[in-house]
Amino acid sequence: MTLTLRSLTRVALEEDAQSFASSLTRDVRTAYAGQGRVGARNFSALRLLFSEGQAPVLLMIDKEGRPLLGNLMRWPAGLHEGWNVVVLARTGSDQADTIGVLVTRLPSGERLLAGQALENDQRLSGIVDRATGTTLIFALPLALFAAFAAVRIINARVDDINATAKAVSEGRLSHRVSLDGSGDTFDRLAITLNAMLDRIETLISELRVVTDGLAHDLRSPLTRLKVRLDRAETEQNPTARSTAIALANEEADRLLAMLTTALQISRAEAGIGQDHFEPFNLSTLTQDLAELYAPLIEDRGFELKTDISPDVAVRAHRELMVQGIGNLIDNALKYGASPIQLMAGQTATHAWVEVRDRGVGIPATQRAEALRRFGRLDPSRTGFGAGLGLSLVQAVARLHGGTIELGDAKPGLIIRLSIPL
User: Fold this and answer.
1) Which of 166, 233, 307, 378 lies in the 20 to 30 Å Cα band around 293?
2) Could you tell me which residues come within 8 angstroms of residue 47 by beta carbon, excluding any fewer than 6 positions away?
3) Contacts of 317 (CB under 8 A, 6+ apart)
4) pLDDT tens track for 44-61
């Protein structure tokens, strides 16, 4: 930038000098054409007198080279028509100056030299040169220091990211990229990476839970299945043998349902199924489920109350929504108390389905565990549930970009499934 400023300054000074020389030449030629040599001489004397601050230079010679007017004693050697820069002394000056002159030839054969001394321009140019040099002397070290500091800062932040990646690759999944609070690009990158690492840690933790849960929950039904098959094999009574086989089939069906649900959760959490989204009326679907579950609810001695807003239109995976809402009703039947309330509606941005019961509910400290895959609030796991019902509902919500919320019905439990409209 400083070198460009220096160059532009020099160009501007030279253009100003050439403009002054052109103006002086034009005025002298006009006076000569109108009043001859006498008029040109008089004009030149006045112009030299009143333009002294601009250090004008003027000389006209005839065909034989004799001076006719101006403030130079003789015609400088080596000049050519057009712009010239020469060193010579003006009349009344005891030292030579650098002068820029414009040389032209008049129609009658005389030659005219007009211009100005460049002393002031050279002085200004020298000031600019010194300023440029001083700027470079200070700017280059500062630029080098700034570059060195920037590289150090960048390397430090990149090294932190590398250290985090290395720690995670070694199995320390809780390691995170540190933030300095500046909000710069590295901070934003660190936030994104940390969110990714949080998700990875959650998935790995869930995978461990799934592995442990499957190992624990499959052991009991597989053991019962084996016992009943062994009993059926050794049973002599045909009726008892048929009963044992039927019970074994029930255990096999329960195992298949557990594995199918676990697979559906995994597929939903992986985002598989979005290509099956279709528009439908959530109100109609919820009302159909209420009618479907009504006989079962009555058989259990429960009362079902509905409050479904009409015409709630969504674009979603119909089968998964059916299974998710069905799981909410099943959960209320298993662990709640009458009456069960099934509601549906919408806000400005979301559609929602809500199931309430009047049971014991779930304490706030255990709600996260209830939503976890194979999460069961019965530590002995004596029941037939696998802890996958609410986990599937949560996976369905995530697939649709929605949420599942557990609340207190005082007494009882409120579960709301929300998805974007």
Assistant:
1) 378
2) 24, 27, 28, 56, 58
3) 273, 274, 276, 277, 278, 396, 399, 400
4) 887 776 766 667 888 888
Question: Residue for token digits 């990646």?
Answer: 165
Using CA of residue 199, residue 200, residue 201, residue 207, what is the dihedral sign?
positive
Task: Using DSSP, state whether 90 is helix, strand or coil.
Answer: coil
pLDDT in tens, 156-189: 888 888 988 888 888 888 888 888 888 888 888 8
Q: What is the pTM of this model?
A: 0.47
Taking residues 380-406, what's their average pLDDT? 74
Determine if residue 346 is left, alpha or beta; phi over 0 gives left, psi from -120 to 50 gives alpha, anything else beta: beta
Pairing of strands 413-420, 350-356: antiparallel
Sequence letter at residue 91 = T
**Rounded-to-5 percentages of helix, strand, coil across the chain:** 60, 20, 25
Q: How do beta strands 67-70 and 56-61 pair?
A: antiparallel
**Domains recognised in the chain with CATH numbers:** 2-123 (3.30.450.20), 274-420 (3.30.565.10)
Q: How many helices (H) and strands (E) does the chain have?
A: 8, 12
| 8 A C-beta contact, residue 133 and residue 3 | no
